[in-house]
Structures are given as C-alpha cells and as structure tokens.
Protein: DNA 3'-5' helicase
Organism: Halobacillus kuroshimensis
Amino acid sequence: MEKLMEGLNEAQQEAVVSTEGYIRVVAGAGSGKTRALTHRYAFIVNELGVDPAHVLSVTFTNKAAHEMRRRVKRLIGGEQDTGFITTYHGFCVRVLREDIHRLFYPKNFSILDVEDQKTLLREIFEDMELKMNEKTFKRLLDKIGILKGNTHYVQQMIMRGGMPAADEAGDLDGQIIQQYLKKQKRVYGLDFDDLLNFVFVLFEQYPDVLSKWQDRLYYIQVDEFQDSSLKQFELVRMLAQEHENLFVVGDPDQTIYEWRGADPKYMIEFEEFFPGAQTVFLKENYRSTPEILSLGNALIKNNYFRVDKDMLPVHPPGVKAVHYHGKNDREEAKWIVQQIQSLVEEKQARLSDVAVLYRAGYLSRNVEQELMAENLEYTIFGGFKFFDRMEIKDALAHLKMIAAGDDLSFSRIINVPKRQIGKKRMAFIRQKAEAEGLSYYETLKKYEDHEQLQRTGAKAFIAAMEELKERKKELNVSELLQEAMQKTGYEAYRREDGDQERLDNLAELLHSIVQYEQTLGEDIDLDEYLQMISLYTDHDREERMDTIKLMTIHTAKGLEFPYVFVIGMTEGVMPSVRTIRQRKERGLEEERRLAYVAVTRAEKALYMTESEGFQNGGQKKYPSRFIFEVEEDLYERVGGLDPALIEEAEDYIRASHHLKQEAPQQGFEKGTRVHHPVFGIGTIQSIDEKKNTYLVFFDNLKAPRPISRMFKKLEKVQ
Ligand code: ATP
Ligand code: MG
C-alpha cells in the first residue's frame, strides 16, 4: 500500500482511492494524470483484491496501452492477465472475438487496415474494368468512412446468406461501395470503423451480451478522455451503467482529434451526464521546467473556448526556451542537428532523450537528410510505415494464411514468388469460390488437378501450407514465420531479388516477434499475435536503440522527452492553413492546442524552429503566429530575424486569415451569480475588458478564476 502511494501527491492519492462511482480528473499536461490512473488500477487489483479481468482501462494508442501494461505489471506482478488494458479498438476486438457469432460472423474475422481496404477496391475496379488511381481510392474510402458514421449499414452486412443485390439505381460510387461491402462480407473483414459499429449493433440486438460485458467490467477507466468521440463515449457509458463506475482523466486543452469527431464536452460536462460525479483537480506539474510551463500556459491562454487552469511547476528553474529562425530550411535542419550534437557531446543527453516533433509527416525530410549526413541514428514513429511495407505485409500474410486462410492474404501471396497463377487463373479461382461458397484456398485445394491449374505451383504451395498448419501448435510465432518464409520459397525469392533493405526489414520483423515473446513473458499464440499486429500502426514499434525520435505531434500525445524540438513552426503549416479554412476559429483553436501539446512534451529544454523560403504552394514563409502570441521574454531568439520581416509577417497573419473576434456572448455585470460546468456556482468579481474575461469567485474554490467572456457555457443563475 505505501509503495503504491509513494510518489503521488495528495490529490493523486485521492484519485487513486476514489474507486467507486463516477469520477473525473481534470488537469493540465504533465500533472500526473496517467500516473494516477496507472496506480489506481494497481490499487484496485492489489488493495481491493479485484481480478484484472474485471477492470477495463482504455488508453489512446497501442503504444500507450503497452506502456501502461508494463508499468502496471511492475506494480501488481507479471503473472496477471492485463488484457483489458487496451485501446477502444482493442477492446472491441475482444468483445467481437467472443460474441460476433451472434451476428453470424466467424470468430476469426479479419481486421482490415487501409492497405487491405485498397486491395478490395482494386479487385472491384478490375472486375468492373474501371481505371484506378490513388486519388479515386482515397475519395471512395472517405465516402465509405462517411457511410460508416452510423450503424445502419451493419444490418445489411450481418444479414444471413449474403448481402442483398446492389441498388441498381445508385450512381457509380454507390455501386462500388455496395460491391465493397459485399467483398468485405465475403472475407469476413472488419475495418476500424466496423469494430466499434459491430459492437454497438451486437449490444443493441442482444441485451444478454451487453449485460454479460457490463457485469464483467466492474471498474472502467479512460485516459485522454478529452479526445473521446460520441461513439467511444457512448460505449463506456453503456458499459459502466450496471456498476455505475467510471473514472476518466483528461485535459480539455489537449483535444487534438476534433476533426475526427472528438468532443471535449463529455469531459467538461461530465457532471451533467453523471449527476453526483466527483471531480479531482491536479495542480502541480511534474514534467517540465518552470520556463517550459510558462511558455505553454502563455500560448494556450490565447484560446477563447477553454477553462483556465493554473499549474505550478515542481521542478527548479532551468533554461529558457529557444526560438530559432533560419534563412532557409537547410539552415534550420543544420542548426537542429548541431544542437543535438552538442547536447550529446556535452554529455547532457543521449540521443534517445531527444525528440523532433512536427505538424505533418513531410516536414521531417530535411532533418532526416541532415541526420543521415552526420551519421546520427534516428527512428521515425508513425509515418515510417514499417508495417505497411510490402515485404512485411507479405510475411504477415503468410502467417494469416496459416491462421485463418483468408482470401485477402491468399490473393496477396499466391503468386509471390511466381507460381504461374496470374490474373486469369485467379479469376478462375474467384469465380469457383464465389459459386461454391468456398474460400480461395479451399478452392485451390479442390481444383488442384483441374486443367486450369496444370503447370502451376499450386501443389507445392498447398503442400507447404498444409505442413505449416500442422506444425502451428508446436512452434512459436517466430519459428513459424521462419519456416513459412523457407517452405514457401518467399525468402529465397527475396534474396534473388537482392534488395537489402527489404531483407533487413524482414529480419527486423522476426527480431520484433522474438522480442515480444521474450519481454511480454506471456506465451503469445499465432492468433493473438496477429490480432495485436493488425491493430498496430507503425509508431507502436518497440524502441530499442539509442536513437533520436522523430514523430508528428499527434503521435507524441501523452509522451514526454527531456529535449524537444518543435520544427517547421511556419505560419500556414502550424497553424495549418487548411484546418483554418475548413473550420475557422475552431480549427485555429485546435491548432493551438496541438502546439500546446507539442511544447508541453518537453522536460528540460524546448526549441521551436522555423525558417525563411517558400512553401510548397509558392507562399513566402513567415514565423507562426503562435510564436508571436507568446510574450518575448518567455523565450530567447536565435538566428537573425529581421524586424522588418516580423512586421511583414504580422501584416500577413492579419490579412490572410484575420478571424473576426466575435462579440462577447453575454454581457454579465459585476456581481452576477453564474454557473460554470466544471467549477459550479460563483460570483463575477470584476471584468477585464482588455483580456475579455470575467474574474469569477466560485463558491467551492479558494481563489478567483479568469473565465473568458467568449465561454458560452458560463450561464447566469436565475
Ligand atoms: P499528459 O497530459 O501529457 O498526458 P499526464 O498528466 O498524464 O500528462 P504523467 O505522464 O502522468 O502526466 O506525468 C508526467 C510526469 O510526471 C511523469 O514523468 C510522471 O512519472 C511524473 N509524476 C507524476 N506524478 C508525480 C509525483 N506525484 N511525483 C513525482 N513525479 C510525478
Ligand atoms: Mg497522460
């Protein structure tokens, strides 16, 4: 018990022992929310004696879930099954693996990532003899995403005995989408949208299934709750209904997925959804130096739609944040790399203490080139697309063939290496399979002696697959992969092909599997492994080496690094001009939150960089407004930034997307009694016209709070 409470402040301890009812923890970046959540999990298991099988803990990414599992295991011992520390999608997979048969889908349904989705589209385009290109695919996938915004289409997919015929009247896109759903059904594939939607339909149609899961999950906790979408919120709300137990932590200022449906209102209006809910505030910041913290606070204060919160630094003063301005992007990249080199040479930092963060993937290229030139090791998280690489997908398709024998994997590898089964013979297999309701592989087996399949590698392929399937039980995943690569001739084929990078990647894949087998200490079997992998995005790769970390800000969410470079801080890039165009003021605020997330990742030192030149569209580059929004004494400026350029930049910012300040929503007078969704009831003590805020003394708080006059949720008490 003491050990569990060690290294937690009073408020965190309160959060840890508040195990019953509806509870939210609202606090800024680096205040120890995730730490409180992790310890609470351990408290429930160790001190309340509740089996982890009854505790659902939802985090945002696989990486975060993996990290939390590791930490929890340290606190509760490694033997327990912590499978319910997972992501929303991971949880849905768990539910569906157990209960999807109620919707007449097999339990070994496959999970489709974007590449799989494109493979399906490609087949449809071939069948319909349409011209295809990436752009069309992307447009169609977006449309499919919109269709899957609600659950209506699921009804059609779960109908027994195949899908009804495509709507004849539909336009071409409509017809393609119908074909797509049909194909999806044929391979029993679910994409990420489907995972949640199928669970909803399952729970709706089978109350007994819902109640089984409600019953099982006595304790539910959610990290990064501010980024929950309506569907995700509904899911946890539904699950928590029986035991009336839900614990959420988050920071509304870090909502960065509004564009994908996230809505911080579930966090802010928590008490309205769950009357009587308890709220815990955390005030100390344990992550960053006071310098970094003040910069972050100064930046986020520019947002109107927010609840101001004070954060106190725990660490002693350190160094000032830096704004570097370069004459061109080469210079910017060179400066960054020099800084990293000197940090390492002065033994202040290891390479892995350094993170380079950016608004969009393409921004990494310059820094990458410079790092390569200087022989500095780096890893790209997210966007590296490790698991999207052809050879990796091929290798995994072999494993999937052994596990499930699904059509997608079959199509992927049947003719790699060449087995003389090209388009024509595939059409034969497809046609037979569809007519007889068999999988492609079953069809191949049935017709291996058919004249259509003479003089092909079909027989050898079948022999290899059958042998591998037989040995599936006795071999672990890494051994199975090795055998598969050899027996099918894939490895030899890659060797002949001679691309060293691909061979290295395959070796790396094998290495990662061995690592999982060793570190997780759990015997993962093939199905579990594939399930885990299919939920992966690339940033979930294990970090092993001492390398600099490069990633987008979205990927860096929830993480922390001693030295952080936020690069490409150019107006139009960050804030992104596209976001502002699409979502105006709200878009700008989300961009600012993104910048806030970026700077608050830093523990010891923060560098914001940008440079002159021209953007891709030809627009002249200026420093981001976010830099100008922060008082100049909060950072040190390095590199020659001409005052004339600053002026020009400010003119540009004003002119290009000048956002009209809305008139204040409400003109309350001094002394008005008001209600606030988080702080409750209070009195307006004074009004600051310049900052456009009220200073409100809330009945439950010891000191007044500045609340923006734009904040719509501040209401007069009648
Ligand atoms: P974010 O909003 O960025 O997700 P967070 O609120 O989840 O941040 P944590 O990641 O839990 O913050 O904690 C930030 C850092 O502070 C971590 O390194 C954590 O170990 C440390 N920390 C948290 N609480 C304490 C404490 N009471 N004493 C010492 N260190 C702490
Ligand atoms: Mg956190």
Summary: The longest strand covers residues 602-611. The chain has a mean pLDDT of 87. The radius of gyration is 28 Å.
